[in-house]
Amino acid sequence: MIKAELSLRDVLSSLPADHPERAELEEEVQRFEERNALRKLAELQEAEAPERVLEVLETARQRYGDMYEAVAVPTVTLRETTRYPEGWVPLNPWFFQKLQEGRIKPETAATISEAWVLWDKTARPNYDGGRQLYGNGNDPLGEELAHLRSQGAVEVPSHTKHVPATSRFGLSANEVDGSFLPLHAQSLGLRADLGERAMTRPYALFNVIGNMRHPEAGQVNTWEWMDEKFGDDDRLLGGDSDDGGLGDVDRSWAGSHNVSVGFSPAIVLPPQA
Question: CB neighbours of 211 closer than 8 A, spacing ≥ 6?
């Protein structure tokens, strides 16, 4: 397969820009690369994590127990025409439509860049009137969330007063970004100068890793905030089993406190970490 790719690229590079077959060949190379990247994802085995990834993972274990697992992901761009491996749940066509319209930011939201990702394994629960808790009531993030609420860093409007202080539900996307993620990154000792970051899970990453290893992320009837912005004031959210599971995506005001919407952090580390 690698030889085929090199051969196609060699032919492509030899064609003048105005050659009538160039566009068709470019599409063929693109499709090949998509299939090859998705094949690698589908066949992904445990890779040997570099020292810095193991260091951050160990810090996480000391602070949060067995909350995270390290996953190596290659660069892959997903498209509405992408041929997924058998059994995979594809991205929602609405996502590509709004991305093309320029409503979703960043513009590269359909591309997953090569990285090491620490994936939060804590189970998102089914809806229970806002009283539901991640991790079957034993959420490793509960202490930090209770602290943020007690300090007023997370607003508790009247319709969320019944939500437990340790809950990931009822936080706005703005509060997750502005209050929780900086605290969490500090707890993990992440280094921004090395390109290390804590974020809510981007939709494409949620879909791909969910398909690869964690289908349960799309098997509960609650949502989670995604990383992508929609327009000026909204944020993507998804994952509801009633609306498509791993393919589910919608948008909501980033300042809303919804007792059906939680979040999961993703720790993204450079591939050479």
Answer: 41, 84, 85, 88, 89, 246
- Cα 272 to Cα 61: distance, rounded to the nearest angstrom: 22
Asked whether 228 and 203 are in contact (CB, 8 A), the reply is yes
pLDDT (tens digit per residue) in 36-79: 666 666 555 556 889 999 999 999 999 999 999 999 988 888 98
Whole-number CA gyration radius for the chain: 20
8 Å CB contact between 209 and 119: yes
Q: Tell me the residue ranges of DSSP E strands in the chain.
A: 68-73, 76-77, 104-105, 111-112, 115-120, 197-200, 223-230, 234-238, 249-253, 261-262, 265-269
pLDDT digits (tens, 9 = 90+) for 240-249: 999 999 999 9
The CA–CA distances, whole Å, from 46 to 43, 97, 238, 268 equal: 10, 34, 27, 17
pTM, 2 dp: 0.86
Cα gap 171→154, rounded to integer Å: 7
Helix (H, G, I), strand (E, B) or coil at 229: strand
Sheet holding 68-73, edge to edge: 68-73, 115-120, 265-269, 197-200
CB of 121 within 8 A of CB of 214? Answer: yes
How many CB atoms within 10 Å of residue 166? Answer: 19
**Amino acid at the residue 161:** K
Q: How many separate helices (H) and strands (E) can be counted in the chain? A: 8, 11
Query: Which residue from 172, 182, 183 is spatially nearest to 143, judged by alpha carbons?
Result: 183
- SS in 3 state form for 139-205? CCCHHHHHHHHHCCCCCCCHHHCCCCCCCCCCCCHHHHHHHHHHHHHHHHCCCHHHCCEEEECCHHH
Tell me how far apart the alpha carbons of residues 99 and 115 are, in angstroms, rounded to a whole number.
Answer: 23
